[in-house]
Amino acid sequence: MSADVTEVADFLASRAPFRELPRALLQTLVRQTAIRYVRRGTRILSVGETNEVMFVLRSGAVDITDGDGGLVERSEPGTCFGMSTLVERAPSRYDFTAIEDSLLLVVPAETFHATCERDEGFGAYFTSAHTARLRRAVALLHTTDRGGAVLRTSVGDLVRRAPVTAAPGDSIRAAAQLMAAERVSSVLVQQDGRLVGIVTDRDLRTRVLAEGRDPEGPVAEVMTPEPATARIDALAFEALMEMVERKIHHLPVLDRAGGVVGLISGTDLMRLEHNNPVYLVADIEAASDVAALASLGTRIPVIVDQLVAEDATAQDIGRVVTSLGDAIERRLLVLAETELGPPPVPYCWVVLGSQARHEQGLASDQDNALVIADEMTREHDHYFAALAQRVSAGLVECGYPLCPGDVMATNPRWRASVATWRAHFDRWLDTPEPQAVLNGSIFFDMRPLHGAVDLVEDLRADVLARTRHADLFLAYLARHAVGRRPPIGFFRGLVLEREGRHRDRLDLKAGGVGAVVELARVHALLGGLPEVNSHARIDAAARAGSISAGLAAELIDALEFVAYLRMRHQGHAVRSGREPDNFVDPATLTDFERRHLRDAFRIIRAAQQALLQRLPLENLS
Amino acid sequence: MRWWRGGAPDRGIADLELLALDLETTGLEPARHEIVSVGMVPVSGLTIELSGAQQWAVRPTGADGVGQSATVHGITDDAVAEAHPLQEVLPQVLTALHGRVLLAHHASIEVGFLTRASRAADLPVPDLTVVDTVRLQRRVLRLGRTRGHLGEEDLALAAAREHLGLPRYRSHEALTDALACAELYLAQVAVLGEDLTLRQLLR
């Protein structure tokens, strides 16, 4: 029997770095390889994903782009890719997309590493190929002025804590105990205030355990002496290059005088580079307590700021902020359940208002409620009260203030069985009172977040089937929506707040974002449409013929523009340490923005008038 | 009721276990000609596993030796002398086929020779489920047109591969042809839709 897969082996043998491999080693590699086929347009690997294989393009073509879509490399047959996650052991920095139907050789990570170990040239080739690609990606960032955080940040900004240090004469065991106590994976060895070495987890494994060394011996025997370091003012990017080239994961940071100020790891750099919501969600899901969640919560404004700078739409930013808020709230629920034990009866935790609509901003407070299975008894409420208490308090710590209107699951009124919720909705729909309808409108923007989702889905379906016939209810809602006057005055200038704390400021919420949200809600309930997001509601209303397609498109643009200005305003506020609010100083807007803002408000007014014509509201007392 | 090898007929192709097989023979007729080499490579779902690739040269028993067919597959009498007797190779092929769908280009050759060889060796004749890349290629070529004749030349392995943008291979080496067939299959199902079931492949 012989099974030299000659076509594959010959193909590889004609190209670097496989060309230099001994034939036997190459054949071993080929025999561990798999082959896959992808159609044109297939995303093979995305930024932020990890993969356990290296791809070699056998035929076809693959584009390698950075996270912003800039082309880093167009690969031809023979190009290796995807190995950055093997070289760096970190998520991919690139998107890989087949631009032709492509045949891919798939080399498993173990094979890749084993080959690197057995052939030094092979490993070195990939390290330098990887840094070359990285340099191109960074050059691209420079030329397109999309400079990522990794370019703007210095190493000193990344140091999070004072270094954990030992003296050369300390025992290995003492160093290991110190690392365990401080929960770090390396310790810096200092003598007379000078860095002389570093000991990592890996050293303890390979130089102590594997060699059976006496742990009472001095740490100097197992440290890496004179390790590579980074200066405090070096760019994060330079540190990253250093770590990749040297295949190390820890870099001590020195000040100008050569004193040790801390340590950075590859993980710090990856986190920084994207400030990527994906990583943040992963961190949130792994947070072990409220304090950890609270510290992660402080990163949300940074992400918003960055998304604004990257010109993301308000709609997208709202989605990102909401999904981070969702993740924090879900994690709090899981932590609370762990503490309290499983629920006595099924329940669903729901979010309301802007969070339900995927429109959460930085100034959003918490709005939530509990929908509990009808088997619940009075006794069971102790459990749910405790659950709500924990989650609500946790949200406060994570930066979501309590709801001023007390629309929270901690309020016994909003912690109720399905039957009780039905009764609430019946009252709003059947015997509406203007103020009660207004207060209750937030519950029509409801989204199940955690638990028995079907409890809420059934409830919502039943309610939605009825809203369109609830004339008086709709009329009250519509009257309020139409009453939210956009701030455009008689001369079509902008109307500023006349008094109070926000004098001479423009309110972007009341007659702006808020007005559109209410309009969208009226249209949704008028048509019994299940959508909750305002943008989606307006789209659906246009499809249902409730609003003209042209006006709908304009209204969506208006919402996007006002919401974007608001998000930007809030991002700036948080960055400069102020409370985010909805009041913008018109002097900070450009002429262009002011003009557009006037147009946006005019469109909102037009949409309100169109609704007035649809619904006869004059007869309302 | 028929027992399906390699999975129930409604199984999606993403979960299908196949074995791409190619036999090089001294001619096209199982009754008169002989197997001179066997190449095979497993396909698990939409992935070709080179770790399972195998090839054997088979020693013919007939007095004629390789004869004229050497001009096609390049296997000379000298090379054949190093080869294994069919009775050694055949059980390994049948074992590899166990639980897998047979995948071949012009599969009737492989099925015919395997059946004949099993009978001759007094082994149970395998009840094979067969996917033929020639038939799949007909469907690929018909996607874009409603009528028109498809000639042999359109359906040959090399032409089919070229049509789907796959690299050109030196043909008529058993393992290379088996691999070529396996790659062709991946490209074909990518075009035909990866949500196909085995039943739809057999149609």
UniProtKB/TrEMBL annotation, chain A:
SUPFAM superfamilies assigned to the protein according to its UniProt record, in alphabetical order: cAMP-binding domain-like, CBS-domain pair
SMART domains tied to this protein: CBS
Listed InterPro entries: CBS_dom, CBS_dom_sf, CBS_domain-containing, cNMP-bd_dom, cNMP-bd_dom_sf, DUF294_put_nucleoTrafse_sb-bd, GlnD_Uridyltrans_N, RmlC-like_jellyroll
Family annotation (CDD domains): CAP_ED (cd00038), CBS_pair_CAP-ED_NT_Pol-beta-like_DUF294_assoc (cd04587), NT_GlnE_GlnD_like (cd05401)
Pfam families the record matches: CBS, cNMP_binding, DUF294, DUF294_C
Lineage: superkingdom: Bacteria
PROSITE patterns: CBS, CNMP_BINDING_3
Residue stretches making up the Cyclic nucleotide-binding domain: 17-112
The CBS domain, residue ranges: 159-216, 223-280
UniProt keyword NAD, yes or no: no
Gene3D superfamilies: CBS-domain, Jelly Rolls
Keywords associated with the record: CBS domain, Repeat
Protein name: DUF294 nucleotidyltransferase-like domain-containing protein
Organism: Ornithinimicrobium faecis
TrEMBL record, chain B:
Cited SMART domains: EXOIII (SM00479)
Name of a matching Pfam family: RNase_T
Organism superkingdom: Bacteria
Electron transport as UniProt keyword: no
GO molecular function: exonuclease activity
Keywords: Exonuclease, Hydrolase, Nuclease
Presence of keyword Metal-binding: no
Span of domain Exonuclease: 17-194
Protein name: Exonuclease domain-containing protein
Annotated organism of origin: Ornithinimicrobium faecis
